[in-house]
Amino acid sequence: MNTVHSLALVAGAGAGLGQSLLSRFQAGGMTAVGLGRTRPENPIGIFHELDLSNPEAVASVIADMIATHGPPKIVVHNTAELVIAPFSETTLNDYQQTWTSMVQSLVVLGQCVLQPMVRGGGGTLIVSGATASLRGGPRFSAFASAKFALRGLTQSLAREYQPAGVHIAHVILDGIIDTSRSRDLHSLDASKMMKPDEIAEAYWQLAHQPRSTWTHELDLRPASEGF
C-alpha cells in the first residue's frame, strides 16, 4: 500500500489511542484527519469536531476530505460509549446511546468511505473492539450488547468488501488503555496497561499486511492479562 500523502481517517480521535493513531499515520507520511465529538487539546493533524452518528454531518466532512485528498487508504473506527451499571439501573436510553455511538457511527462511516475506497483501489478499515466484544460481564450489559453488534457488523462488512480489495479488520483490545482518565478510573498499575503508541503501531502493521495474508481479527493484551 502506497501511503505517502494518502488520507488516513480516525473516527473517535480523542486523547489516548485516537491521537496516537493519528501520530503514527502522520509519521508514516499520511495526511492524518481526526473526527470526534470532543476536540482534544492540541490535536494532531486535522481535526473535525462533529457527531459521528449524524449522517449528514459526517458525509459532508468526508466528502470534502475525499475531494481534497482522494479516497482514504486507512480508516479507523475507534468510538466508545462506556456504561457500567447494574441491569436494573441501566435505562433504555443507555442502550440506545451505546448503540448509536458505536454501531450507528460505523454504519454512517462505512457508507461514506467504503465505496470511494473500492473505486480508489482499496485500503484498510480497522474497527476497535474490546473484551466485551466476546464476553458480556456483570454491569456491562449496555456496553457489551453494542460491542457484540459492532463485531457482527464488522464481520459482515469484511465478507462483503474483501473481494473488492478493502481489508476490514476487528481488533479486540483486551485490557485497559493507559491514559490519564483510565488511571484515575481504574487505579491500575501502569505497567499492566496497554500503551496507546504500541497499539497504534499494531494498527499500522495490520493496515500494511500483504493481500495474501490478511488478518480479519486480532486480539491485543498486556502480557500480564489473563485470557
Q: What is the chain-wise order of helices and strands?
A: EHEEHEHEHEHHE
Low-pLDDT stretches:
none
CATH class: Alpha Beta
- The total number of structural domains is 1
Task: Briefly note the structural class of the backbone.
Answer: alpha/beta
Give the strand content: 15-25%
Main sheet: strands, sense, barrel: 7 strands, parallel
Q: What's the CATH architecture name? A: 3-Layer(aba) Sandwich
Number of helices: 6
> Which of globular, elongated, flat, extended, rod-shaped describes the shape?
globular
How would you sum up this structure, described in words?
The chain has one domain (about 5-220): NAD(P)-binding Rossmann-like Domain (Rossmann fold), CATH 3.40.50.720. It is built from six helices and seven strands. It has helices at about 15-25, 55-70, 90-120, 140-160, 180-185, 195-205, and strands at about 5-10, 30-35, 45-50, 70-75, 125-130, 165-175, 215-220. It has a seven-stranded parallel sheet with strand order 3-2-1-4-5-6-7, sandwiched between helices.
List keywords for this structure.
alpha/beta; 6 helices; Rossmann fold; globular; 7-stranded parallel beta sheet
Structure, briefly:
By secondary structure, the chain is of the alpha/beta class.
What is the secondary structure topology, with strand pairs?
Elements: E1 7-11, H1 17-27, E2 31-36, E3 46-49, H2 55-69, E4 72-77, H3 92-119, E5 123-130, H4 141-161, E6 166-173, H5 180-186, H6 196-207, E7 217-220
Parallel strand pairs: 1-2, 1-4, 2-3, 4-5, 5-6, 6-7
Helix pairs in contact: 1-6, 2-3, 3-4
